[in-house]
Design brief:
This protein is mostly helical and 234 residues long. Helices cover 56% and strands 0% of the residues. The protein has 13 helices and no strands. The longest helix is centred in the middle third of the chain and has 19 residues. It is globular and about 60 Å long.
Amino acid sequence: MKTYEELLGVHGPQGWWPGRHSFEMCAGAILVQNTAWTNARKALDNLQRGGADSVFGILALSEAKLADLIRPSGYYNQKAAKLAGFCDYVAEKYGADLGRFLSLPRDRLRAELLSLWGIGAETADSIILYAARQPSFVIDTYTVRFLERVGIIPSDVNRDQLRRAVMAALPEDVELYAEMHALIVQHGKRFCGTSPRCGDCPLIGSCDFGQSTGIVGARPASRSDFDVDHWTGT
């Protein structure tokens, strides 16, 4: 919680996820795999314009047409198959009632999502947290890298262990989980990427990795540092 408060103080509330409805959040979690959100957003906009932003809408398309609509997200043939497979499952098992599927108890929902081709833990937990609005913390590369560098976790913790540990350490709350995940991603993009910008990082004083660089203190962060929209990076 101390780390959460520090991140919140630096970046401010994030208010994720940028989805218009639950289906879009599910589709977005698949389309954002291995790409930037801006590219996934373009693909989602194409689906909306094509009247395919629902389970029935996707199933009404040929896989070739679906792939063409989501082309901006990259790996579009694979992602078309993943998205179609997800919709096939919801249609077959739940009568195409996405709300009914997302209302399953968290652990059962997660198990069923993980049983689907192309949906791994990160995607499943994103769907559970943001679309189903159930507390399931999302562990991604940003999270692993950040928590290792600040010294909260050792380098040999696997992602399942880390998810359980984070969920045990934080109150079980959807808004908190979503905000913490978003803050870590934001911090990773701005400071703690593959090539860290420790000299500019406002959290260097409480970061094991930052302290090991020998940089004494960071410049004070100003709010203008966090209002720029062009930040990218992994």
